[in-house]
Amino acid sequence: MQTTLQALRDEVEQALAGLGEPEASTPQALGMMQGFPPRPDAMVRFEQDRMLAAPWNRWTFSHVRELMPTAGVWRGGGTPSALPAQPQTASSGPRATGVLPRLDLAQVRYTDLFGRPADCAQMVRQAYTDGLLVLHRGHVVHEQYAGELRPERQHLAMSITKSVFGMVVAQLAHEGVLSLTATAGHYVPELAGSAWEDATLQHLLDMTVGVAYSEDYNNAEAEVWRHALAGRMRPRPPGYAGPMGFYASLRTFRKQGEHGAAFEYKTVNSEVLAWVAARATGIRMADLVSQKLWQPLGAEHDAYVMLDDHGAEAGGGGLCTSLRDLARFGEAMRCDGHFGGRQVLAPEVVAEVRRGGDRLLFANSPAYTLIEGGSYHNQWWLTHNAHGAFMGRGIFGQNLYIDPAAEMVVARYAAHPLAASRYTDPLTLPGLHALALALRDG
Amino acid sequence: MQTTLQALRDEVEQALAGLGEPEASTPQALGMMQGFPPRPDAMVRFEQDRMLAAPWNRWTFSHVRELMPTAGVWRGGGTPSALPAQPQTASSGPRATGVLPRLDLAQVRYTDLFGRPADCAQMVRQAYTDGLLVLHRGHVVHEQYAGELRPERQHLAMSITKSVFGMVVAQLAHEGVLSLTATAGHYVPELAGSAWEDATLQHLLDMTVGVAYSEDYNNAEAEVWRHALAGRMRPRPPGYAGPMGFYASLRTFRKQGEHGAAFEYKTVNSEVLAWVAARATGIRMADLVSQKLWQPLGAEHDAYVMLDDHGAEAGGGGLCTSLRDLARFGEAMRCDGHFGGRQVLAPEVVAEVRRGGDRLLFANSPAYTLIEGGSYHNQWWLTHNAHGAFMGRGIFGQNLYIDPAAEMVVARYAAHPLAASRYTDPLTLPGLHALALALRDG
Known about the structure:
Two copies of one chain form a homodimer. The first copy, chain A, has about 450 residues and is α+β, with helices and mostly antiparallel strands. Chain A has 15 helices and 15 strands. The first copy, chain A, has a single domain (about 1-175, about 270-440), classed as 3-Layer(aba) Sandwich (Beta-lactamase), CATH 3.40.710. Chain A has helices spanning about 1-15, 25-30, 55-60, 120-125, 160-175, 185, 200-205, 225-230, 245-250, 265-280, 285-295, 325-335, 345-355, 360-365, 425-440; strands at about 70-75, 110, 115-120, 130-135, 140-145, 155, 305, 320, 340, 340-345, 375, 380, 390-395, 400-405, 410-415. In chain A, the strands form four sheets. Chain A has a seven-stranded antiparallel sheet, with helices on both faces. Chain A is globular. In chain A, about 55% of the residues are buried.
């Protein structure tokens, strides 16, 4: 284990050494998409395939709808629910940026996963954070924005999408609309012959489907990229002859091994789930999220979902929300589904997440050594630490961290130059726990 | 004149005779974009160039953001302003559709512009109406939705965009940020050599720019289509070699004749205005509309603006709003810029619109014989009738009609199969006046 960690540290430190300063990568610093029109060398267009590439992602993640088709998630018509700030001391007041001076992140010190001294301000900075919101006992104790993010602007949630959509699926199951023991093929007969024909929804929710599909972002030949082209998440090259649209692509992936035998994190499972939910209800996920979450939460802003060019939703990573609404959702998860005077999700649905998944399968999965002792269940990551912390996570630094024992929720949107979470986890995971300890003992 | 009207009637009746029943063209009736995925023959994709084509436009006009890039117009964070229903009589109550039974449109009878008997229910139906909202003295006396429109969904406003953006420009001028007597070339130097180099903003606002550009939708070679390709409002054919983006396209149009000499309605003028406003303020029109209109109006829903693939806004016809927020804006125009307890627009800005434009130039423009005696000013259409009615208008049946004398505002979104307003005006213009008379005397 020590050897593995050392090798990981070497790889991570080498990768990070080549990166510029976070402050130098902001759209403002680079003139990116500034002006009418922007400078040609500072332009971000879909056809340039800059959605994920640094430094462009510091602009794209806060402007997804300006590059591609999206479906709106309506917040509902009422007054937004309260997200109250921590009561101010006499000597302090909110600043224009919304940063409350009460919590000094630089004072929260800890040791990172590689044994190096760190503090939470460093954690925020080195994640190329676009926005950070910390709730303690339901009060906002810290809120900051950088780069292109604004309180009212939606940021790409990446795979936190899975955690949000997962709760819609679990809630639908709780209501009897879906059965988690039924197969995906039962709901979507076109999946016959694919890996999902005989996989249960629970297999999908827990990422234990046996499917020939690689999510290695560093491998240009990996199926994750082929699938992205099918869904036009990236521009298709001239003469492209692959599947057109997510649904057509999903039907092409074949079974490999047995379902339930291994934890293998694969975004296509979540896309099949979104398809199942839409097919079973007749309502697409964007509208289900509105009905089941955003409206009852009293969301402050509409959210939206990326669409392929055939109208299908990017169910594994295409949700974009405001930071504040992501925090509201996290607070509902902390409070057994209750938020703003409403029971948004059934308590059983949240309790089931916190029960966790199969820790042995998780331990056997080589990619997640940094979440030691954890598990994955219903599209959430469980730490199984002493605080019972669990999280939604997305590549490039997205995080929704819920610490029940410390009564803390942290929502972070970021645009790190590198996709994989191992480049932010070493600082982030112990940093969020340190923050929880500081607030708990505060 | 009588001959002209008869010839127009013949052409209009012949064109309309070939159309199907409005009820048969709804997405529900045709299965259009229903299901996951929709039937292949009922699919609407951007690449199919179905945005404007009937019957597809009954779906596309309510789902623009699902087909192309858009910029959000934030409604602001507060409680939506009231849009109160007319107090109910004991025997009536609002139905699920939001239709109040008080106003029976079929009982409002009149003679259309071609001398045929008509009623307002017929006017609504034959316009392929997606949504109609009637305000009288600030109360909702009628609200209905059809096809794909919902109260919370945004519909393409087409050229009502001009009336909204025009008020932003006029308000900026009132505040001293812009000068309407300055030239567009003064604000956007790249327009040197184009028609707009020496045209004043007032020329643009009044559509009296001399520019070689045809807006004849029935002519496939007209510049309006070339410009649409440049802005990727339509899919570009393989090997497309024209300008890329609205801004690049606008620079190519040359002067023809003298500015101020004729009223010639050309959407490119409005796009130049949006460019000027963005350049002068450093804020794009979507955000200016949010700051100057949607936030102070207390809008109920976000709006949005279509973008080209270089991030430039479709300033002449790309705004999409909810019907209710369009009505709020109209009510502010009726009430001298005042709405919901706020002075949204300076009274002088609204008074200037109502003063009207050059009626002689308007009378000399052959295309608008159906608005006899009217004028065009600051991107609004003035009837100069006894009620002082004025309106925003858009192709395919969009209308925002304000009748000060009758204290009436009508917002209508529609998806007529034919673009030109002459196919809806014969019923609509006298119909709205008849409705005003009915409410005034009612």
